[in-house]
């Protein structure tokens, strides 16, 4: 088992590098980089993507012959300083130069850094967990993620726990009463919930319960009220639950179907096995048979997959849910970073969450072994 874990740990390195190489390569062909974003903002064009695609007319008559569409009308020295600041170029000065390196110094010049070199510099920093600073917010990427984390923690933690607490007992009940009216109508209900788009259900909740056209029971936005600091401990807990009720329900509604049906099918497979018939023949109660013998084997797949599922919803962030309920979490952060071409945020979060996802894959395998010692990954080759 130790050799298997070591192999999996070593495989993290090439896998993570492959993920970063693919995404870094894609950004080299996407129009409208961070320099164009800054130029478009300063010239009032709104978004550099409009200039790149030809959608805007602002600044067309200012002209530039260098093909740098997003930089029309801005001083070349300013653009060069931006390229150096964002890590796309470096300042090279003549030998013997004693002043402060600057793009405006006659003895210095700008030298563009090749994409391959920029990639290796980025990866070296990431291996030391130095994720840099956001281009547009003047804050470290780690601090920015920590700032947005409470929303994702709320949605991910409560959605996962509620899904497991409801789906597992429901799946067991459906397996015991397989083919009965209860099994039929509950299957219909969870499939309908799975089929309803999350954003549509979220809007429905807002209209019905957040002051839309019917009842104003829950707040429209945020995780806490304005008077949060003045509330007692119990008041803070109730205020927190009051604010997260609708977003959590909206993000959880579609997660019941897969987990419930997986639990049901796992129990059905185990109930038909010989050891269950033997246990019943010995006179054991149905509860003892189900939870003393069947549960451990049937829940192997469900429980072992919990770490990976928890991390995926914990760090994933839901852009649509966050937007509808005016929550500022990782979903909004990732979307804005992609639109603004904020590469430190994009690649820093991709590296960090990718690393966590790969590690959680190993933990999932260890969970299999812990739940069922008969499984031996160490005997596998490759």
UniProtKB/TrEMBL annotation:
Report membrane topology: Multi-pass membrane protein
Which key words are in the record? Cell inner membrane, Cell membrane, Membrane, Transmembrane, Transmembrane helix, Transport
Q: Which family does it belong to?
A: Belongs to the binding-protein-dependent transport system permease family.
At the top level, the lineage of the source is: Bacteria
GO cellular component, alphabetical, reads: plasma membrane
Q: Which ranges form a coiled coil?
A: none
> This chain belongs to which protein, by name?
Microcin C ABC transporter permease YejB
Any one Pfam family match given in the protein's UniProt record, by short name: BPD_transp_1
Asked if Transport is a keyword of the record, the answer is: yes
Q: Which residues cross the membrane?
A: 9-26, 151-172, 184-210, 240-263, 298-325, 345-371
A Gene Ontology biological process term = transmembrane transport
Q: Where is the ABC transmembrane type-1 domain?
A: 149-368
Under the heading PANTHER family, the entry gives: INNER MEMBRANE ABC TRANSPORTER (PTHR30465), INNER MEMBRANE ABC TRANSPORTER PERMEASE PROTEIN YEJB (PTHR30465:SF66)
- State whether keyword Signal applies: no
Compartment annotation: Cell inner membrane; Cell membrane
Q: Which CDD domains match?
A: TM_PBP2
